[in-house]
Predict the 3D structure of the following.
Amino acid sequence: MVLNEWHLVETLVDGEMSVVSCGGVVKDWASVTRHVQPAPDLPVTPIIDEVIRTRRLVTLDLRSRKGAQKAFHIEALPVLGPSGEAHGVQVWVGEPGRIPSPPRIAAGIAWSLERMVIGQTVEASMMSGVLPEEHVPERTPAEYIAKAVKFDDSASLFELGIDPVHGRRWEAPMSVLHADGRVMRWYCWGKGRTDPGNVGLRLLWHDVSDTTSPELPTLSELGMQEMLRSAGVYTGVFAADLAVLTMWLPDAPPWVSWRNIKGGNEIVHPDDRYVLADALATFRSGDTAPRCVDARLRSESGWRAAQLSISPYPGPLSDRLVLVQISTIPDEFDAATDDVQGSDRGVRGG
C-alpha cells in the first residue's frame, strides 16, 4: 500500500466497498484490504464502516503487533450524497506526526429514476465553481451533462440510469468547465440501485485534475458542433416513454426553457408527450423512417409550437431513446401566448 496519501473508497451500495483512487490515480475497484490496510492486524474496513454509520470524521493512532510493530496515523472522512448517506470515504494512512495534505475534492450525487432528476450536494455544485448561495439541489440529466466539454460515455450512463441493475458498476472520465474558465478532469463512478427509495444510480465524482490532464474536444468534434450551430440544427435525446430530455447534441434551441425546471419531462407539453412514445412504438415495430410531428415546448413566454423530426436512437438504447430535431413553426401556429402551466389548446402530432 501507499503511505501518506489519500485513498478514495466507494461505498455506493450497502455492504460493498472498493478503492477507486489512490493519490489521485484511478484504481480498478481494488481491494480495500490490499490497498489501504497498513498491517495484517490493523483492519481498515471497521473504520470505514464507522464513518459510514456516523457520517463523521474518524481519527485514530494505531500500532501493529506484527513484524516491526510500526505505528500509523489514520484519518477517514465521509463523502456524502444528497440523501446524507455516504457515497464514499476518503482514507489517509500515514506515519505518526505527518500532517495529511488536504484531500482532493470528491462529491456524491444520485440519479432518481422515478423523477428523472439528479440530486446533488453543495459540494457537488462547488466542484465546478458554483457559489454555495447559488446551489440548486436538483438538476435534470441534460443540465448535468451540459457541464461537460467532453464526455464520451453518456450512452452507458443513460443505459444504467434508465434501466438500473442493483450493484452494476459504471465509470468514466469527464472534462468539465469550471466557472473560472479552466477545464477540469473528473473521474466518475456509479452503481445501480433498485432498493426502495434509491431506484436509479448512486454516483461519486472526483477531481483528479492535478494528476491527469483533461481531455478536450477534437478539432473534428468542434467543427461538427459549429457546423450544426451555424445551420440552426438543434437535436435532443429523449427517453421517449417518459418524454424526458437526457441531453442536447450539442446545444438547445435558444428559445427553449430547459434549465431550472422540476424534471426532465417538463419540456414537452403534457398533452403532447405522447408523440414521442408513439414514434418509439413505431420504430419498435420495424418502421424506422423518421416521423415529423408538431408539439408544444416550454419557452420563457409560455408553450410554443415546434416541429419535431423524431428518429431512432443509434445504439443499445434504441428501444428507449429517440433523437428529436427541433424546428420552429411560423408565427400563425405559435402557441406562445398559452399559459406555461398548461392549456387544452395546442398543436397535435401527426
